[in-house]
Amino acid sequence: MALLCALLLIHLVLAWSGPATALTSQSGGTVGTCTRIAAGLPARHRNRFHPRTATARASAQTEAAPEDRTRASFVVRIPEKVWRAAASEHRARIRSLLEPGLVGLDHPSMASLRKRFLEMEEDDRWSTMLDPKHPVYNFLVEYYGLKGLKGPKRLARWSPAIGLFFAGDNHNNGPCGESGADPHTEREAKPAEGVRVRRIESLGEYYELSAAHFDDDRDNNHKNNPRIDYSADRCVFLEGATPDDFGSTLHLRGAEWIGGDVESIGGGGDDHEIHPIPSGIASDLKGVLYRPTASRNGAAREDRCGETPPLSRATSLLWYRSVLEATASNDPVLHCYGLHEWAMQYQPEGAREPPSGRYQSHLALRVSRTTINETVERKGVSCTHVDALRFFAPAAGPLNHHGASLERTDQLGLEQPACVHAHMDLLKIALRLVPYCDPGLLLDVLGVALRARALDVGASPNDCSSYRCRSWGNATAAATAAAAGTTTPIRTIPIETPAGRALYKELQKELMAEAAPIRERLLSNYETVLRTMYTPDQLEEASENPSDERFARAEPGGLPWRKNLLERVA
Fold it and tell me: For residue 239, is pLDDT > 70?
């Protein structure tokens, strides 16, 4: 019996130590042992065992590794003076767009934040917080979570345009080193054979190359460009960037600091994995690396315990790509007249007070309750935006021609290019791409979203005329107003009258024409990011496993999507 127990003990020891030894010899040090320990834990606990020390990072960068992990096929380097100038311009334009909605230091909302604001570095004091009561700008706070002092800064953070990751391709104009030799830099990076390096020398070149890929993609109808190898490894290196730039200037997500201990970034997690320095970047250079292709396979980008990360982000990106495609292809509805805002205030005799009555409750109604009810009942409501239905008064649900109960998947059949809320949602969709949303595109998206919001609240039954915004007109008028630093009162559009409905329709058409090319560029950005970040097999797997929130119901006065899920049939 004792002999049997001894043999069993030896067997258990070998079963435990054998795989761990093998993993250690392959991965180095504690990484293999960590993986072996974590393998038996629930997934939510495994990330506690990732050895993210400077020693482990140095080991991973110096040891021999598979070829696809040690070099990037295309390396684009941006000198510090160029990328800082681009980031500064981006922040200034964001500031100009948001300025009418920012509160002053003496605003009551700043009472608890004033001391912290004054203690900030001077460069960080470029904005306060968005006014949660401004009828145009409060949707950024309520819908998209851009709250407090961090809200505007989230929009102002910069990262290189997605088109730059393709600046080293042969089909792009401009010099690019043979076999990776960089003709612009004095410091020879000595990249491996087949690695191409390009250094952007001016701000003008940066903007030119950023736009070139969008033009190329549009010419190919957003399909695979035969001249681009989407499977190639690509990265953009920002020379001279430091961890101090994260949060205030650069996006932390997706960034990797080259030149020190990753712990000093103050972040970590899935977006700060241990990678070798790509060939094409001199080992003594310091800066920040953005590398979207790192997620294409488990060998190139592993989770904290050596496991391939989940494809939940790919699932989300695929969904929003389908929303963009559907919106552009569906027929426009030009007879809604923004009545969703009126449906939120609808209260016929005997009905309880609408839950959304508290929304914008600080604004006085410019018409009577009787006028609101009569306007909603005149021909009913033709609202195609499934998100808006949740904010209807319950009594208004049956008056919606598209249904009083809608499912999330109905969005693909209903979302259409004339909807002001579809224009506003472009911002939410663009932010999903961070850090790989083109900064110039994000500015255009924010601009059209704010103009859509101005039309939205101007046509509401609320009196918004005491608030000001940039010109409510087209992009050219808004840009002129921004350059001059001028604002105008929010224009009232009385859609309860025939003249007001005609004006709304005219402005709706103008906005639809302005938003169409922006939506097309955003779709192009999505297509590029999906092809660059994921393999076809990964995208297929993600498309076959949609998230639970894709199967949810919206009802007037109902719960958020994530709390009103449908039972999925296997």
Answer: yes
